[in-house]
């Protein structure tokens, strides 16, 4: 479930960023917003299920950097603080996506805007769920990336 929460915004970014003509303007808006709403609902479910557990879960996504004795895998560290931050980031981002559908209605580049907004959310989730400093740096730099594109 945690991988779904984290990677749905990335999937929305990829769909809206790579296939804007196929999806259309409204399709890009609804796909990215729908994925964020699903991610927010799953975050709330994880919050209600996991808030009292107190156990830290490590969800390995893939082996990332292995050099000599140094190993930095791409993992999601899920504890109580992380679950709270997943709720905050996904709920606020879903609300921003919903508001932006009407607010950005006049802009001709809405698919790009919604793709970058989903990329920003994914980077925030990487920052929140990071298990090592390299992954935290990746998330931190990703938060800065969309406004500069």
* Cα separation of the termini: 31 Å
Principal-axis shape:
globular
Mean pLDDT: 88
* Largest pleated sheet: 2 strands, antiparallel
- Please give the radius of gyration in angstroms: 16 Å
Integer tally of domains: 1
pLDDT under 50 segments (min length 5)?
none
Give the ordered list of helices and strands.
HHEEHHH
**Count of DSSP E strands?**
2
Strand order of the largest sheet: 1-2
The fraction of residues assigned to DSSP E strands is: 5-15%
Level of helix content? over 70%
Number of helices: 5
Structural class: alpha+beta
Describe the structure.
By secondary structure, the protein is α+β, with helices and mostly antiparallel strands. The protein has helices at 2-18, 20-50, 80-103, 110-129, 133-148; strands spanning 57-67, 70-78. The chain has one domain. 72% of the residues lie in helices and 13% in strands. The protein has a two-stranded antiparallel ribbon with strand order 1-2. A hairpin with a 2-residue loop joins β1 and β2 (70-78). α1 (2-18) packs antiparallel against α4 and α4 runs antiparallel to α5. The two termini are 31 Å apart. The model has no long low-confidence stretch (mean pLDDT 88).
Write a short abstract of this structure.
This protein is of the alpha+beta class and 149 residues long. The protein has one domain.
């Amino acid at each position: 479930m945690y991988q779904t929460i984290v990677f749905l915004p990335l999937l929305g970014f990829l769909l809206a960023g790579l296939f804007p003509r196929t999806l259309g303007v409204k399709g890009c808006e609804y796909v990215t917003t729908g994925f964020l709403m699903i991610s927010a609902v799953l975050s709330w479910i994880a919050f209600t299920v996991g808030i009292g557990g107190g156990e830290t879960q490590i969800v390995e996504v893939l082996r990332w950097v292995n050099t000599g004795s140094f190993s930095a895998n791409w993992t999601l560290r899920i504890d109580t603080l992380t679950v709270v931050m997943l709720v905050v980031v996904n709920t606020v981002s879903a609300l921003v996506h919903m508001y932006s559908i009407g607010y950005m209605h006049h802009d001709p580049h809405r698919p790009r805007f919604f793709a970058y907004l989903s990329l920003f959310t994914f980077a925030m989730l990487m920052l929140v769920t990071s298990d090592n400093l390299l992954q935290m740096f990746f998330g931190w730099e990703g938060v800065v990336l969309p406004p500069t594109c």
